[in-house]
Amino acid sequence: MELWQLSATELAAGIATGDFSSEETVRSCLGRIEETNPVLNALVDVRPEDALAAARLADAAVAAGAELGPLHGVPVSTKLNTAERGALTSHGLSVAARARAVEDDACVAALREAGSVFLGRSNVPAFSMRWFSANDPHGRTLNPFDAARTPGGSSGGAASGVAAGMTPIGQGNDIAGSIRYPAACCGLVGLRPSTGLVSGWAAPDPSAPEFPLSFQAWAVQGAITRTVADARLALTAMARPDLRDPFGVPALPAPARPAGTVRVLVVRDAGLAAPHPSADAAVDAAARWLAEAGYAVEETALPLLGEAARLWSLLLMEDLKTMASGMRELGDEATRINLALGFEAAAELWGAEPGLPAYIQGWARRATLITRLQELLGDGTIVLTPASAEPPFEQDADILDAERGKSLFAAQWPMTSVPVLGFPAVTVPTGLADGLPASVQLLGSRFAEHHLLDAAQAVEDRAPRLTPVAFP
User: Residue ranges of the Amidase domain (predicted)?
Assistant: First the structure.
């Protein structure tokens, strides 16, 4: 087996014990990048010499008996919209095609301190605002399972690269499924942590606008991985108390797990889009496997998830109206079309101009929904949903046809409901359906990530392994 095929957990252990070196690992991953990236276009700004220099320093630390971080010497990709010192930070915009960061964002700094070796920057859509990953300056990222289907977005480059074996971990962020959905499209594990657990502090950028409330309250940093164990390892590396983040927690919660039998509530439909047969079959498989693992599984309705998804359309789209002129001016044509269709989809739910009272009431209602969901899940209960109501979307489905584009917002209710509420959620693959990855989502109590990952592990243990993909 080649080193690029190993998990991050296996690589970290092998580097620490001297079974192989970080330099050997990085060279193996760079070889895989050379083999696959020209077609997939998952990574941009790959810097082989910088990565090899960092790997040699990591190996020297091992030889010196230094204390090692959890990802010491392990290759990682970072997302094009997250600042990495000295790296391209274009946000998928032509106007910033050569922009480079002068300082790490907090999540990247955490990965660096954990010993990660950065191999390249993962591609995104302009402004990271689509469930697809294509932009004018860097081009289109492909899904290694099917080039005609989206690799997901906005962390589509991260997912495509991890699935193909370019790196075992891809850093990402999520405000509407941008970690979980690409993971689901590419047969991977995507963990969205509780709001505040991984610092969202960003390096100061005088040219950047002040982000609106939905961006501040909903966007989280996390990772896309090939295994649940790697998701746990990445979370360990990235989660650090940081009160510079306005939603940051002062101390990390203990990884408590409930005693006794854990309930799993199966929610197939939130009243917005009926699940495709492949999505239904994925839920069936995961429910069966969780029951085999000793969970108490029961079907239920949970209307508050549908309500939260509708609030996402109200609150985020009203916030985006304050930024829309700049996005239209600086973004690409896909940005302009997708933005317009997003406003149309929201208008069908809330009217063309909901007004300030509806916006204020929406934020007030959000607090009530959070309380109700925490009361439901606080005893360790987990919710199982489809990852999306549909299989991975056909490329550019959001911009080629107006009605089709608007339908995506309904299909993505499992993706959009969660950020509004701030709870942790993880997508985990269940197998292939018509050659495409099928996945489910697990949703748990706030700051109960390790308990949630236990359930994801039970699914992974029984599902076929889909990655790294034999590509090309």
Answer: 24-453
Q: Which of 21, 155, 160, 178 is catalytic?
A: 178
Provide the residue type at 351 as one letter.
Answer: G
Active-site residue, from 21, 77, 90, 154: 154
Average pLDDT estimate for 225-249: 97
Instruction: Place 255 in a pLDDT band, splitting at 50, 70 and 90.
Output: confident
CATH of the domain at 318: 3.90.1300.10
Within 188-274, strands assigned E span 189-192, 220-225, 263-266
Span between the terminal Cα atoms of the chain, in Å: 17
Cis peptide before 70 (omega within 30 of 0): no
Q: Of residues 7, 28, 77, 79, which has the active-site annotation?
A: 79
Please report the beta strands in 189-318, taking only residues with DSSP state E, as ranges in sequence order. Answer: 189-192, 220-225, 263-266, 296-299
Q: Is residue 470 part of a domain?
A: no
Tell me if residue 7 is catalytic.
Answer: no
Q: Residue 207 pLDDT more than 80?
A: no
Q: Does residue 450 lie in a domain region?
A: yes
- Does the annotation count 178 as an active-site position? yes
Q: What is the DSSP string of 300-360?
A: ---HHHHHHHHHHHHHHHHHHHTTHHHHHHHS-HHHHHHHHHHHHHHHHHH-S--HHHHHH
Side-chain half-sphere exposure of 287, counting CA atoms within 13 A: 19
- Give me the pLDDT at residue 257, please: 83
Q: Which helix (H) or strand (E) holds 139?
A: strand 139-140
Can you tell me the mean pLDDT for 286-307? 98
Boundaries of domain holding 342: 3-462
Interacting residues of 371 by C-beta distance below 8 A, sequence separation 6+: none
Whether 160 is a known active-site residue: answer: no
| Torsion over CA: 451, 419, 384, 233 (sign) | negative
Task: Using the predicted structure, report yes or no on whether residue 126 has a pLDDT greater than 90.
Answer: yes
Average pLDDT over residues 265-274: 97
